[in-house]
Amino acid sequence: MITAEGGATLCALVVHVIFNRVEPRNKTVWFLLLVCLPICLGLGLHSFYASLFVSVFKTMLIFIGSLLSSLIIYRLSPLHPLYGFPGPVLLRISRLASFKILFTGKQHEIYQQLHEKYGPYVRTGPNHLHISDAQAVPYIMNSPRCLKSERYNAVKREDSNARGLLGIVDPKEHSRRRRLWDRGLNTSALKGYQPLLTNRINQFVETLRRESSSNESIDLAKWIAFFSLDFMGDLAWGGVFHSMEDGNDVNGLLNLSQTVTKIHETAGTIPWTRLFYEYLPVSKKTIQQLAFAKRTVLDRIKRGCGATPDLFMYLLGEHDDTIDEPLSLPALVLETSFALIAGTDTSAMTLANSFFYLLSYPDTLSRLTAEIDALNDDLNPNALAGLPYLNAVLNETLRLQPVVPNGVQRVLLPGPSGKGVVVDDRYIPPRTNLQISPYCVQRDPLNFSPHSHCFWPDRWLPNIQDRLRGNDKADFRHNEQAFFPFSYGPTACAGKSLALMEMRAVLSTVLSKFELAFADGWNPAEWEHNLKDFYTLRGGPLPIVLVPRKVAS
Ligand code: HEM
């Protein structure tokens, strides 16, 4: 005859199998399986115990204890499909351990240390592989068998069926929506945005002059973020922000967008935690934010497009009545808000990092300034796109500090025979979550060498190998397949060309107008120390002294 303990244990094992097979993400199912089931069992087994309360309490304890033990034993056992992949025990047992890593803000560095210890494929969760292998890049990011993982559900809102581009998992639906974005971010659209960019850059230069007139240092990172927000506000919502003028982010959007990305990263790290986010106070803030975005979008629709085209115009289809599926209002609100989030912090952080590295390596700063000066103030986008050293500086910044350091996450679908796949001689079982990190791959000496962890823009110059001598020549490695700061494949960054145009223009204009130096007494080591990875990279202040350059007579 079955004992009370045996019954509770058996139930726990059955629940484990159900969770393993079905991975339910529904609060009611969780409640039924994890709370109601053991309580009912306790009620049914009360004849074994002194009282009803003791029966329910003990059954619950045995049930939870058995469930946890069964989970742990299975995840560490050779029965688990990822048994052969190395990784820290705590991470192999539960993704909860990755929360601790996430909240340090240094997950990119910690995962890199794990790769140094365990190799290019590290098991970072019961069902997760963290990968630092350039050969896996095209496979994971450009294969019909690798879909966006459950992490992308974190960007879906419960109160609406609308999805923004980033949250669309189905490849066909994604490619339909992506066409809208591509129309708004292709070469001819970018030409149309040039007047908006030029206006904002002129305003940025005037702002820097105003702020640095007392010879005090200024926080360059903050002002770049204001510039970037104002410019993306022009493109996404028809010019609603005046952060450079006000010297303040009045609507608190920069902070809010960082909080939202942090929440998405948290929910993306352990998808079931998403069930509880709506109870957090910050959830109210995002709802207020969406209400603000909705008002702004409605206002922009009413005003119509001004003389200069903007991205909103393309997303709404104002330019083209042949669009067969115009976006619904909730989708338009999501997409334009996403444009703001995707386009502001990313370019701003890369620019701040570029200034930081240029000032840290004065020789690189002089070489870039000379290259820009040779254009005699004709800083048009085509001329800038052709400057080898300027592009080398931006590439090298993005190599060392990709703004999505930990990269994208995909899940491997089973093949026709239910099998996984072999990548770089390793068999990866189906349904594994795969995360491939540009931060780790791009700093790997196997891909970029010498000076893998140093800022050395020369590696990007044509024929550099011919100019190297000795060890540098022997060690030289330059694997462009291992460079993917804008991601790769059909879901790669839609705004890459816009970002490059904007960053080239800002860097070259500022260097042509000002001499820059770190503020006296500031320790540059603080900059890298303050860089935090919460899905996107964010940083602390960058105190800089700016002096207008003398115009050559
Ligand atoms: C230095 C600047 C930038 C970098 C390094 C960057 C990087 C990335 C990366 C890594 C992704 C993939 C994210 C994922 O799948 O989880 C992405 C997606 C995206 N980015 Fe950027 N980005 C930058 C600037 C911009 C700008 C200025 C825009 C303009 C709106 C933009 C729009 C987008 C869009 C729409 C997507 C989604 C693409 C899709 O799912 O098809 N990005 N970006």
UniProtKB/TrEMBL annotation:
Chain ranges passing through the membrane: 29-49, 55-74
InterPro entries associated with the record: Cyt_P450, Cyt_P450_CS, Cyt_P450_E_grp-I, Cyt_P450_sf, Cytochrome_P450_monoxygenase
Keywords (A to Z) from UniProt: Heme, Iron, Membrane, Metal-binding, Monooxygenase, Oxidoreductase, Transmembrane, Transmembrane helix
One MF annotation (Gene Ontology) recorded for this entry: heme binding
Domain of life per record: Eukaryota
Pathway(s) this gene product operates in, as recorded in its UniProt entry: Secondary metabolite biosynthesis
Cofactor names: heme
Residues annotated as binding heme: C493
Family: Belongs to the cytochrome P450 family.
Protein name: Cytochrome P450
